[in-house]
Design goal:
Blueprint lengths: L2 H18 L4 H11 L4 H26 L4 H28 L4 H25 L1
Amino acid sequence: MSYLLLSSLSFLIGTLVGLTGVGGASLITPMLVFVFQVPPSVAISSDIVAATFMKIFGSVKHWQQKTIDGQVVKWLACGSVPGSLVGTVILHLLREKSSDGLDALLLYILGMMILTVTSIAIAQLLL
């Protein structure tokens, strides 16, 4: 794996995330899987850790600029935090049951989510 290429592409993706607000997972995870041949389970978990750091720095900057709506953040957290925990538990249970097809399943789910997000973005553009 070329770590220089990985850092360069990650810098580019981080810049795009900062400019557009598009989630890094829709960009970083596919890059890890398809460009660097990282197994989907490793790519997803690595992306979550990297996204945590990006979100911390982005949050501080938005807090300084007073561009945060606390009410929206509260309601987003009420759904996304429990959802993240449930997703982690489901992944753990799937891994315990049978890890043989786990990466294939995760790759399928990842592909479906990318198609869904892309379709929504196109529909939003058209409407």
